[in-house]
Amino acid sequence: MDKVPTEQLRPEGTPLPGVLRCGVPMSMMMRLDATDFIRRSGAFVDRQLPQIEVWALNWTADDALAAVQDKMKVEFDRPTRWTLNAFQVWRATKSKRVA
To answer: Assuming Cys at both sites, which of 8, 78, 98, 99 could form a disulfide with 61, CB separation 3.0 to 4.6 Å?
Structure first.
């Protein structure tokens, strides 16, 4: 194996990136046409966005309900299950995006 010239080595003695161990500098060029990927991923997002919105609304409503119940436990003097369950979440759907 040929020795790598010292100008192509790092201070610790390992070859610089892009330099083969035989000391020959390496160059590479690559082209990528991403138009089809962008078009298909856009269609995927358009199809999935309603379901993602439903999940986000329902998870947010669940978090809000839990926060209200936690606050009731702190503010009320010995709240009953009846009191804690006084609030409910109406789930969002794809056709009705309200929670």
So the answer is: 99
